[in-house]
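Propose amino acids for all 722 sites.
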């Protein structure tokens, strides 16, 4: 007791210090955003090391992302002064799973050099199995089955354990047999999928109690961040490792926030956090209530919003960062997504001029298709940006596929593009046929498309591939003839339709298919802003050339889902409209749970901001390819007046800015919004009357210009009518 308080403890508040110093027995830190949960975990590691209670290799700590793992390592080494000699067991569930499996592969029937399959590999494998069973894979798509397997694995269920109903649910009762065959194939291939990285260690531990025991003894301390988003398999895995025989108690410390549970759609079980003290009897539950991240306005707004959820534990949060100079949460309106991106870009430039670093700013979107508009705008402005947690728009699979079609049409010598899509969607052009085309092309020194044209006139190909290749050649010939005469976006639409590419994703029942379709529509829409298909392709080549240097000062663009745990001085939250956020899929579900998960996502978004938080909504957005008038998100209604300011709308783009489309009483079909910057925020525009006005407005908008594309046209149309 006479020892001086180590440096790293002195900055903590009493509850945080308690959480750090309660090293014996199970501890749950249940606390709201920005209260220092992650900081408690890192300090706890430092403390354990400092007291010499364990070697770094005896601490198991689990983070949600690899980025978070890296940050945690850095933070620990700062705290203990000097580099931590390896924290080999600090990582995500998956990375730790891989490590365990490489060591003990033989116990689960693999070799230690097993490969890890990505989603595409998995789908291909499923398809082979489905076809081998003689099942129609149009009716029972491989992607859907891959998704089912993933769902079972998230629950820790092997083929023998899946519910009878689930098995019956695929291909008339073939679910279980296919799953069994799939696992057998993986063994033969010496491969594991992502779900296996969780499930196989569990199986191994169960089958080999001696190995389990070894790890139970090894991991003297277990720490878990973002516990609210663990799924059942992860939970089982932790329970096994944390098991102790009484009177010994597990030294497990989990931190989380039920209000930030946002991965329910991927199998996360918020119940895991709610029943912690049942699973670990005698657990100490610590609540942290002081938020160190955000201003009183940001916190006030987030707290008021999340209070609209029913299924929650409820927590108190306060901040001592109160200052009359603090900016309230700003709500901005824009005409459409293009203007939204333009205005956000301007704000960023202004902030930059005031000396604020781009690294301290983030744009958090609900759906990945929203990113494209910002990326384009930033390229135009020469603003550095990085997309976190996913490929940039033009690097996505469906966009690359579509672009490959466009490239062949406008540059018939582009063999790479031709090869990419000649058999997409599948048209029975196997490797053999493609190789034949290739050989002819090489032999004669002509592009593959030209070679294909020759080849179909011979009888060198078997009848079926010959027919398919003929179709392909004819399609490209037709599209090429349209190139000079048809507007780029119309041609793009024709190509995606006639090639069957759009249909391929429409028939696809996997969870990401709707996103891909959204992205494709976004792509077509983008092309409409260009003079021609060629001009568009040139533009993309330039965008793609932009380098992605990690040391660059750059604005981050990411989805709300991947922003968990992060913080930024300034946060932009665009697209707060009904149907986008909350997302239509959650609304269609009807029940409370989908909507509540959306609201938690909004809470996560708001609470990423330290000083400035700017929310945007637009009045016109393309939804399912059509320009539609949109309703402001209900979440805007749920923000408290005291902490929110409806910002001045001064876009400098014609009459709909000041006193224009958002002017309360100014009339016109678009004039019903109460987002008139002159009026105080009264928070009641969600009244039935207002909604009716909005509904009428949408109809009027459709009649006027609903099917026309391109924002510039609408602006003029509106300017005339308003
Ligand atoms: P989230 O729920 O978003 O993951 P969190 O609870 O993990 O948040 P942290 O990221 O650990 O919160 O902390 C939020 C911010 O507050 C960080 O910048 C952290 O350094 C700071 N912070 C936490 N505790 C203290 C403290 N006692 N004194 C000063 N700053 C603190
Ligand atoms: Mg955290």
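Proposal:
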């Amino acid at each position: 007791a006479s020892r001086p308080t180590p440096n790293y403890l002195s900055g903590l508040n009493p509850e945080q210090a308690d959480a750090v110093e309660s090293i014996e027995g199970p501890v749950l830190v249940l606390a709201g955003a920005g209260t220092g949960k992650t900081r408690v975990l890192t300090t706890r590691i430092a403390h354990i090391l400092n007291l010499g209670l364990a070697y770094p290799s005896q601490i198991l700590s689990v983070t949600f992302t690899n980025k978070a793992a890296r940050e945690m390592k850095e933070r620990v080494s700062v705290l203990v002064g000097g580099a931590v000699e390896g924290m080999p067991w600090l990582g995500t569930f998956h990375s730790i799973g891989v490590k365990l499996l490489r060591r003990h592969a033989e116990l689960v029937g693999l070799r230690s050099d097993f490969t890890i399959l990505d989603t595409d590999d998995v789908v291909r494998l499923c398809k082979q199995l489905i076809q081998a069973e003689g099942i129609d894979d149009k009716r029972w798509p491989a992607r859907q089955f891959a998704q089912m397997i993933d769902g079972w694995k998230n629950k820790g269920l092997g083929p023998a354990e899946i519910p009878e109903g689930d098995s019956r649910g695929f291909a008339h009762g073939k679910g279980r047999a296919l799953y069994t065959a799939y696992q057998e194939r993986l063994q033969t291939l010496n491969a594991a999928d992502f779900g296996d990285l969780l499930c196989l260690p569990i199986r191994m531990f169960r089958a080999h109690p001696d190995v389990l025991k070894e790890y139970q003894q090894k991991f003297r301390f277990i720490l878990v961040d973002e516990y609210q988003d663990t799924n059942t398999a992860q939970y089982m895995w932790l329970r096994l490792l944390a098991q102790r025989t009484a009177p010994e108690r597990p030294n497990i410390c989990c931190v989380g926030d039920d209000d930030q549970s946002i991965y329910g759609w991927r199998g996360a079980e918020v119940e895991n956090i709610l029943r912690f003290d049942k699973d670990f009897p005698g657990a100490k539950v610590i609540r942290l209530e002081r938020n160190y991240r955000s201003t009183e306005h940001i916190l006030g707004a987030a707290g008021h919003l999340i209070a609209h959820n029913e299924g929650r534990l409820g927590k108190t949060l306060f901040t001592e960062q109160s200052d009359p100079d603090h900016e309230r949460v700003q709500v901005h309106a824009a005409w459409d997504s293009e203007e939204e991106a333009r205005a956000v870009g301007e704000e960023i430039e202004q902030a930059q001029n005031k000396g604020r670093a781009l690294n301290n700013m983030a744009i958090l979107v609900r759906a990945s298709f929203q990113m494209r508009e910002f990326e384009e705008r930033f390229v135009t402005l020469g603003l550095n940006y990085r997309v976190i947690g996913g490929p940039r728009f033009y690097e996505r699979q469906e966009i690359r596929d579509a672009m490959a079609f466009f490239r062949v049409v406008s540059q018939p010598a582009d063999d790479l593009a031709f090869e990419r899509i000649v058999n997409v969607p599948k048209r029975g052009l196997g490797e053999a046929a493609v190789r034949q085309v290739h050989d002819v092309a090489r032999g004669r020194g002509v592009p593959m498309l030209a070679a294909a044209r020759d080849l179909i006139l011979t009888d060198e190909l078997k009848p079926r591939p010959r027919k398919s290749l003929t179709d392909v050649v004819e399609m490209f010939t037709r599209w090429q003839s349209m190139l000079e005469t048809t507007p780029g976006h119309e041609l793009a639409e024709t190509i995606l339709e006639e090639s069957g590419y759009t249909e391929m994703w429409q028939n696809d029942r996997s969870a990401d298919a709707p996103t891909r379709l959204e992205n494709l529509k976004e792509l077509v829409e983008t092309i409409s802003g260009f003079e021609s298909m060629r001009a568009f392709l040139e533009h993309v080549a330039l965008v793609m050339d932009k380098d992605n240097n990690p040391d660059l000062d750059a604005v981050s663009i990411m989805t709300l889902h991947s922003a968990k745990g992060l913080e930024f001085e300034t946060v932009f939250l665009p697209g707060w409209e009904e149907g986008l956020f909350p997302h239509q899929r959650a609304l269609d579900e009807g029940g409370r749970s989908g909507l509540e998960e959306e609201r938690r996502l909004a809470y996560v978004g708001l609470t990423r901001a330290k000083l400035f938080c700017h929310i945007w909504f637009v009045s016109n957005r393309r939804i399912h390819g059509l320009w539609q008038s949109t309703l402001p998100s209900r979440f805007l209604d749920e923000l408290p007046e005291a902490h929110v300011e409806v910002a001045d709308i001064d876009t400098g783009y014609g009459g709909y800015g000041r006193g224009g489309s958002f002017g309360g009483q100014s009339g016109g079909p678009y004039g019903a919004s109460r987002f008139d910057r002159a009026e105080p925020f009264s928070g009641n525009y969600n009244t039935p009357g207002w909604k009716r006005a909005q509904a009428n407005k949408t109809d009027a908008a459709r009649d006027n210009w609903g099917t026309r594309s391109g924002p510039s046209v609408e602006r003029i149309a509106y300017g005339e009518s308003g």
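Residues 37-38, 225, 565 surround magnesium ion (ligand 2) (CB under 6 Å). The chain is about 45% helix and 10% strand.
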